Amino acid sequence: MKSKKILILLLLISGFSFSQKKTRADRFFEKGDFINAAIQYEEELNKEGYSKEVLGNISTSYYNTFQFKKAYRYLKNLVTGRFYNADKNYDNKYNFMMYQVLSAMGKYEKAVTFLTLYKKNKEEKFNKNDAIEIIENFKLKEDDYTVEPVTFNSDASEFGAVKIDSLIYFTSDRKPSSIGDRKFLWTHRSFLDIYKIKLDENKQPIEEAVGISDVINTKLHEGNFTFSRDMKTLYFSKSNSEKGKKKFDSLNNNAVHLYKAELQEDGEWSAPKKLLFNDVSYSIEHPALNQEENRLYFSSNMPGGFGGFDIYYVEINPGGDYGPPINLGSKINTAHRDQFPFIDRKGNLFFSSDGHLGLGMLDIFVCEKKKDGFVQPVNLGAPLNSSYDDFSITYYNETEGFFASNRKKTGDDIYEFVQTGEIFLREYIAQFEVRDFATEEYIPNADVKLEDDRGNKIYENQLDSVATFFRKILPGKYDLSASSEGYEPRQKTFSIKEKNEEIYVIYLDKIRKEPKKKEEEIAVSIPKKEIPPKKTAPKGGDIREKLLKDKTGPPVVERNGKLYFDLPPIYFDYNKWNIRQDSKKVLDDFAKKLDKYKSVYIKIISHTDNRGSDSYNQVLSEKRAESTRNYLALEGYVNARRMKFLGMGESQPLIDCGGDCSEEEHQVNRRSEFEIVKY
Question: Facing residues of 403 across strands?
Answer without folding.
Answer: 415
